[in-house]
Automatic annotation (TrEMBL):
GO molecular function terms attached to this record: DNA binding
Keyword vocabulary terms for this entry: DNA-binding, Transcription, Transcription regulation
Gene3D superfamilies: Transcription factor LuxR-like, autoinducer-binding domain
Transcription factor LuxR-like autoinducer-binding domain mapped to chain residues: 26-119
Protein name: Autoinducer binding domain-containing protein
SUPFAM superfamilies: Pheromone-binding domain of LuxR-like quorum-sensing transcription factors
Keyword flag Transcription: yes
Organism: Psychromarinibacter sediminicola
Length: 155
């Protein structure tokens, strides 16, 4: 698992947030590498309840580029994200009979190419399958995540 997260970290220069196996609005695992100041502002301002990417992910499956969500962003969450360098990104949503998993991936320099989105989405799907039914990560995975400075929340 740490290898996939490291690969995703390399492919997403401004970071990601991955929420796996969401049940009752809480993920079993949450991995985040977005800039700390953005995550603090996101939390402090309660953006999760107004974030068009989150809304889209709970209502759809597949992926959507953030630029395609900007029109319906009445609360200005996407505009605020750009102030922290999250200029380009996309959201992926997977839903199966057990739970939903969602993720957002970002960069500051350019939009993701279609092939990059496909590859990143595939890695995300592998993580979803790999963590299905797991409640606790191994010490090896936990240590590897800490070394990569990937913040993890576990329910």
């Amino acid at each position: 698992m740490a290898g996939i997260l490291s690969d995703l970290d390399d492919r997403c220069p401004l970071g990601f947030a991955i929420a796996l196996h969401i049940r009752y609005n809480a993920p079993t695992f949450l991995f985040q590498t977005f800039p700390e100041n953005w995550m603090e502002a996101y939390s402090r301002n309660g953006f999760v309840i107004r974030d068009p990417a989150v809304h889209w992910a709970f209502e759809n499956t597949g992926f959507i580029r953030w630029r395609d969500l900007a029109v319906g962003d009445r609360s200005g969450v996407m505009e605020q994200a750009r102030l922290y360098g999250l200029n380009y990104g996309f959201t992926v949503s997977i839903h199966n009979d057990r739970a939903r998993s969602i993720a957002g991936f970002a960069r500051s320099d350019r939009d993701f190419l279609d092939v990059e989105i496909d590859e990143i989405a595939q890695l995300f799907e592998e993580l979803d399958v790999m963590t299905a039914g797991i409640e606790i990560l191994s010490k090896k995975d936990t240590d590897a995540l800490q070394k990569m400075s990937i913040r993890m929340t576990h329910r």
